[in-house]
User: Fold this.
Amino acid sequence: MAVFKVFYQENSKEIPVRENTQVLYVEADGVPAVRKYLDDRNYNVELVQELSEAYLEFEKQSEDFKVEKVNG
Assistant:
């Protein structure tokens, strides 16, 4: 499994505004699994980016870093 950084807007019905972009981290087998995992949330997903080991270590330094895991 890999860790993905997801950039999203909280409401898929509104026009995206860069300043409102949120981020979450998901551990999954691939981008399709991440998108399926987030499907029931009303998010406008802008980008799903797989993190390299170095990038992941950098992100872990943030006190807001939390990983959601895709079950199954």
